[in-house]
């Protein structure tokens, strides 16, 4: 058994406040325990302690827990433990909303099951249907899929789900949104009539309740969301004009100790333009969005996961379940419109109880959204200080030093940056050079410091920030 090196990074109570259970307490198969330890899972997290015993008992489950606290392993471990590799049938179906999440989940499942002999197949849209058919003609025990593709294969009689008695909906709030609910209910018609259903997510809108009432049999509800945001993620905003966003982002990159970062925009066009601009400034930046070809999306996804690129500019495609441990900074270049999107975006940092930083670039038009999201999530997003302490988002510092959180520092009017950007890596191979002309205007904005970024208002005059309209 080859164990990974121990993870000595500090962790927050989101994953450390457990009952003290060990993996051996669940009477799992020895081969599965080998996979668990080889993955580096030292102890069950709180959501795993709650969900795994119930799932092993065959109960229907509705589990709500924060992003990055171990939900994926909480359903994969009992699913894999209950699969019988000697039976040549599909025994479990795991549905996820995006292709990238399907690839990630199947990768984790294969790692956990590598000593079990369980055959796991991933099936998503945007890939060769012929390849999926060939894979499903072989012995398959677990399918990880997006709804549209697996429904198509089930309808053609290729994916034989008649004996499949376990269904997992990861990111259940998205899976039961109007665009997916009809597909999921049609898939249920192909499955065994007596089945176990598990729903897991960080947010549960009313659509989940409707599905629960129709299809779940006395489900056990697990709610570990006493507070909505991750304890290890520190949140700031910088109040800027739209034309100054790129300059502010440049200042952030030069000031912060970034391991890997994710930058979110609200449109596909802005994603591509920003990635091109960052490349021009000398930073390593790829982009990803839903309108890209699947082969390009896969290439970017794997490159970012493997650390070949430091910064990823993304649409909301990447807000769901994507787990990249090296990401310690999330930047909302465009502020989201609702609290659910905000929660999933900032959850890309601070994974599994580690430290992270979320910075929001707020324009005059965003000020009421900022107040609304603070109120709905019960959190506080404070003005960015002149300097951000590294211990808030860089490993190696005792998390006890994070309490209480520091208040914003003084705003220094003469705190400017040198004119030349510091290079963080190679050029962006995925950016389109044709967008270069469109990004010229943003490059004319002078570099600004944290202090200036926090003070600039709609009219361009330097004032104290007043974006939220409540003080």
Automatic annotation (TrEMBL):
Pfam families: DEAD (PF00270), Helicase_C (PF00271). PROSITE patterns: DEAD_ATP_HELICASE, HELICASE_ATP_BIND_1, HELICASE_CTER, Q_MOTIF. CDD domains: DEADc_DDX6, SF2_C_DEAD. Residues 421-433 have a biased composition (Polar residues). Residues 52-222 form the Helicase ATP-binding domain. Its main location: cytoplasm. The keyword Hydrolase applies. Residues 1-21, 401-471 are annotated as: Disordered. GO terms for cellular component: cytoplasm. Residues 21-49 form the DEAD-box RNA helicase Q domain. One of its GO terms (molecular function) is hydrolase activity. Keywords: ATP-binding, Helicase, Hydrolase, Nucleotide-binding. Residues 232-392 form the Helicase C-terminal domain. InterPro entries: DEAD/DEAH_box_helicase_dom, Helicase_ATP-bd, Helicase_C-like, P-loop_NTPase, RNA-helicase_DEAD-box_CS, RNA_helicase_DEAD_Q_motif. A motif (Q motif) lies at residues 21-49. It is found in: Cytoplasm. PANTHER family: DEAD-BOX ATP-DEPENDENT RNA HELICASE 50 (PTHR47960). Belongs to the DEAD box helicase family. DDX6/DHH1 subfamily. This is ATP-dependent RNA helicase. It comes from Sexangularia sp. CB-2014.
């Amino acid at each position: 058994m080859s164990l990974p090196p121990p993870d000595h990074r500090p962790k927050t109570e989101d994953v450390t406040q457990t009952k003290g259970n060990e993996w051996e307490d669940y009477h799992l198969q020895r081969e599965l325990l080998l996979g668990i330890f080889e993955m580096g899972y030292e102890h069950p997290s709180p959501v795993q302690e709650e969900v795994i015993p119930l799932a092993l008992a065959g109960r229907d489950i509705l589990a709500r827990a924060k992003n990055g606290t171990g939900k994926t392993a909480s359903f994969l471990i009992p699913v894999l433990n209950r699969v019988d590799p000697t039976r040549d049938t599909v025994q479990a179906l795991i549905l996820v909303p995006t292709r990238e999440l399907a690839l990630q989940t199947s990768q984790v499942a294969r790692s956990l099951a590598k000593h079990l002999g369980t055959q796991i197949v991933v099936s998503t849209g945007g890939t060769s249907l012929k390849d999926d058919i060939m894979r499903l003609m072989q012995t398959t025990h677990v399918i990880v899929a997006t709804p549209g593709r697996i429904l198509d294969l089930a309808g053609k009689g290729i994916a034989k789900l008649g004996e499949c008695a376990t269904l997992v909906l990861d990111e259940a709030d998205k899976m039961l949104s109007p665009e997916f609910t009809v597909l999921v209910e049609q898939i249920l018609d192909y499955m065994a009539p007596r089945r176990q259903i598990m729903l897991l997510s960080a947010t549960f809108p009313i659509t989940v309740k409707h599905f629960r009432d129709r299809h779940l049999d006395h489900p056990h509800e697990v709610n570990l969301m006493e507070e909505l945001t991750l304890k290890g993620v520190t949140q700031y905003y910088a109040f800027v004009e739209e034309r100054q966003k790129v300059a502010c982002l440049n200042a952030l990159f030069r000031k912060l100790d970034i391991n890997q970062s994710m930058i979110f925009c609200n449109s596909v066009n802005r994603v591509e333009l920003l990635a091109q601009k960052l490349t021009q400034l000398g930073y390593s930046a790829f982009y990803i969005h839903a309108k890209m070809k699947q082969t390009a999306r896969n290439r970017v996804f794997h490159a970012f996961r493997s650390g070949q690129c430091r910064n990823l500019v993304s649409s909301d495609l990447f807000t769901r379940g994507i787990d990249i441990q090296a990401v310690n900074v999330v930047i909302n270049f465009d502020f989201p419109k609702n609290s659910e999107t905000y929660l999933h975006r900032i959850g890309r940092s601070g994974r599994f109880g580690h430290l992270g930083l979320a910075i929001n670039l707020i324009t005059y038009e965003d000020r009421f959204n900022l107040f609304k999201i603070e109120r709905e999530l019960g959190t506080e997003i404070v003005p960015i200080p002149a300097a951000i302490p590294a211990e808030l988002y860089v490993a190696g510092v005792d998390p006890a030093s994070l309490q209480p959180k520091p208040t914003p520092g003084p705003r220094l009017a003469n705190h400017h940056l040198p004119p030349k950007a510091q290079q963080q890596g190679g050029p962006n191979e995925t950016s389109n050079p044709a967008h270069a002309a469109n990004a010229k205007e943003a490059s004319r904005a002078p570099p600004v410091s944290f202090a200036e970024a926090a003070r600039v208002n709609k009219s361009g005059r330097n004032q104290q920030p007043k974006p939220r309209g409540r003080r």
